[in-house]
Amino acid sequence: xxxxxxxxxxxxxxxxxxxxxxxxxxxxxxxxxxxxxxxxxxxxxxxxxxxxxxxxxxxxxxxxxxxxxxxxxxxxxxxxxxxxxxxxxxxxxxxxxxxxxxxxxxxxxxxxxxx
Length: 115
Known about the structure:
There is one protein chain. The chain is an alpha+beta fold. It has one domain: Winged helix-like DNA-binding domain superfamily/Winged helix DNA-binding domain (Arc Repressor Mutant, subunit A, Orthogonal Bundle). 55% of the residues lie in helices and 20% in strands. It is built from five helices and five strands. It has helices at residues 3-20, 25-36, 42-49, 53-63, 101-114; strands at residues 40-41, 67-69, 75-77, 83-88, 91-99. The chain has a three-stranded antiparallel β-sheet with strand order 1-5-4. It has a two-stranded antiparallel ribbon with strand order 2-3. Helix 1 (3-20) packs antiparallel against helix 5 and helix 2 crosses helix 4 (53-63). The mean pLDDT is 90.
C-alpha cells in the first residue's frame, strides 16, 4: 500500500476540517467539482456526480453563504462561504458557481500538498 499518497489525502482532509469544520463527503465532492469547473451549473454537477437536483441544491446552499432566520427573526450565516452562487448572465433562471477567496485558499493548500 502506498502510504505517502494516503498521508497526502489525510492532510488535505485535515485542511478542510480545520478551515470549515465537519463537511459531508458529498459536499466535498461538489466543492471539488466547482473548483475544477468554475462557472458550472447545477445540471452540470447533477450529471457529473450522478446526484439528484435536491441534493445538489442542498450542497451548494451549504457551500455558499447561506443565511437562515430563526423563529425570533434573527438571521445567522450557516454556510461555509466557499462558493459564490450567482445568476447566469445569459439565463437568469440558471445559476453558476465559482469559488470564493476562502475556497481558493483551501484548494491552493491542497494543491501544495500534492505538489
